[in-house]
Recover the amino acids of this structure.
């Protein structure tokens, strides 16, 4: 591999290829900028590093009637408002069978 020297770098900087790469990078950054004027935040780059994981959806049932799908946040709120009780059944994809809400401490303990 040939070692770069200053003359090579000077020629690269002066070349059209360098300008084209620089312009392309600047335009990419400009497209990724997000401006949030209502909060007085200056434009900044938002990098899509993490994707939001889809929230698990649950179905509730009582009295022969199914309702949903709901997120855990929605179910906890309905429990707080007593719109559902721990006697309701709950199910989500991947579960082999329905469970009682009261048998799901990770859900009802947050209420």
């Amino acid at each position: 591999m040939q070692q770069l020297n200053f003359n090579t770098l000077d020629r690269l900087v002066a070349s059209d290829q360098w300008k084209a790469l620089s312009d392309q990078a600047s335009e990419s950054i400009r497209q990724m900028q997000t401006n949030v004027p209502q909060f007085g935040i200056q434009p900044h780059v938002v990098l899509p590093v993490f994707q939001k994981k889809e929230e698990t959806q649950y179905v509730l049932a009582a009295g022969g009637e199914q309702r949903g799908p709901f997120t855990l946040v929605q179910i906890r709120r309905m429990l707080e408002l007593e719109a559902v009780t721990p006697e309701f059944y709950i199910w989500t994809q991947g579960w082999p069978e329905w469970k009682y809400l009261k048998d799901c401490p990770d859900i009802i303990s947050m209420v």
Q: What stands out?
A: The chain is about 35% helix and 25% strand. The two ends are 65 Å apart (CA to CA).
